[in-house]
Amino acid sequence: MVATIIFKSQFRRVLQYHERKVNRGVAELVHAGNFLEKPSELDLKTKLSRFEERLELNSRAKFVTIHILLGWNPKDLEKISGLADIAIVEEYMKRIRLDEQPYLVYRHYDSAHPHMHVVTNTIRPDGSRINEWGLMASWFICRDLERKWGLVITEKRQRAAENVKEKRASNARFDGKMPIAVRISSAIDSVIDQYKYGSLEEFNAILRDYRVRATRGRENSKLYQLRGLLYEGQDDNGKFRAPIKASFFDSQPTLAKLEKRFRENEASLEPESLRIRNSVDWVLVRPPASVEGFIRAMEKERVQVSFAALKGASLPEIFYVDHGRRVASSGSRLGAEYNTEGVMKRMGLPSELLRDKTLERGKDLAAQKPARVAARDRGIGKANPDGTATSESDDDETRVLTTRRKKQVEQSR
User: Smallest Cα–Cα separation from 394: which of 378, 406, 383?
Assistant: First the structure.
């Protein structure tokens, strides 16, 4: 169980955000604390007036809204089914001393993990304001509730590792059961303000892991000329369909907003991409025997590698996504040694291999079963990057040689 508490200066915008989700069928108002009416009897006007009554008691307060996100591990889904999650929220609000405040609880269905949102205000009945220092016990309360309800214990480091793992497993997460519009919205919200990128192609390199892409259409189309942007989701057959305008989504991921992000990220992309360069150099100390081997080796470094065909380019462009630092970069941005031609040359492979149509369509080679996993399943130990198995003694020798080569690379810099 994870609780994220955010203080907001406007309560109307927060409520409207959740009401839009309710109208689209991806959220539900399940509980109304300290309201006379039942959740089904409340309209937006009634909700606003209830909060405005408290705000009139303190006109000097700047941050008047508390927005709490409560998330659970997917393994706890059975334990929080029915009304159990509402009971947990009520106990959480009581333990954190917000149970006397008017508050609304929304259950969202637009993400792979179960979560709820709580909206309340910072003004007490006597007009005093609740500050963030009074909510510092939230982390300890979550741990106690996990033990009481038998939920999965979530430590800080464990949660960070699960976040990275969740990003890496996004293809499996979007298995077609979730509506495409919801999948696209969830992907955009997870990427647009969380990652750093400097072009639409780099933005798409991140979305590719979610089986989503943004497109401007053909250059002679009306969409392109009017600077429009569409988002499409990939179905189980690998085809992109159901284009949706950027203005449809709550985050408004339009081309103008993305271009603003490009400018904001430009200065920080160079230093943030240093780990990607180091990862490529490290992997190529002992060059894999194939493109697939290179992709899998970079996966171990927590860097996703993909290829995409660009207009006017003879070779597909290589893109790197560092999910640890949350940054995406094209090979050309990193330099000649890190673009498609440079990497293929350092691997000793002909660039013509990448003219394969499967790569130009951006096929995810890393999704294939890694050779090391296949070798382990056969009980042979580990495997070389080219897919051949090794013995344990070979592993020891390889480890020594790799350490020496790493030192050689560091000395040559």
Answer: 383
- Give the Å distances, CA to CA, from 192 to 2, 46, 115, 231, 305: 22, 33, 20, 13, 19
Look up residue 133 and give its two tokens: 């220092």
Q: How many Cβ atoms are within 10 Å of 384's Cβ, its own excluded?
A: 17
Per the CB < 8 A criterion, the answer to whether 370 and 296 are in contact is yes
221-240 pLDDT tens trace: 999 999 999 999 888 788 88
Three state DSSP letters for 267-302: HHHHHHCHHHHHHHHHHCCCCCCCHHHHHHHHHHCC
Q: Which two tokens stand for residue 89?
A: 């929220």
pLDDT in tens, 285-324: 889 989 999 999 999 888 999 998 887 778 899 999 998 8
**CA triplet 327, 330, 335: central angle to 5 degrees?**
110
Could you tell me the two tokens for 349?
């492979």
Residue 84: CB partners within 8 Å, gap ≥ 6?
A: 149
- Eight-class DSSP state of 115: E
Q: Is the pTM of this model over 0.85?
A: no
User: CA–CA separation, 205 vs 304, rounded Å?
Assistant: 9
**Residues 253, 230: Cα–Cα separation, whole Å:** 10
Alpha helices in 169-221 (DSSP H): 170-173, 180-191, 200-207
Q: Concatenate the DSSP letters of all residues of 126-183 into one string.
A: TS-B--GGGGTTHHHHHHHHHHHHTPPP--HHHHHHHHHHHHHTHHHH--SSS-HHHH
Vertex 70: Cα angle to 66 and 73 (nearest 5): 165
Q: Return the ∠ at Cα 140 (arms to 135 and 145), rounded to 5°.
A: 110
| Residues in the chain, overall count | 413
Q: Which fold has domain 2-154?
A: BirA Bifunctional Protein; domain 2 (3.30.930)
CATH 3.30.930.30 residue ranges of the chain are: 2-154
340 contacts 315 by C-beta, under 8 angstroms: yes
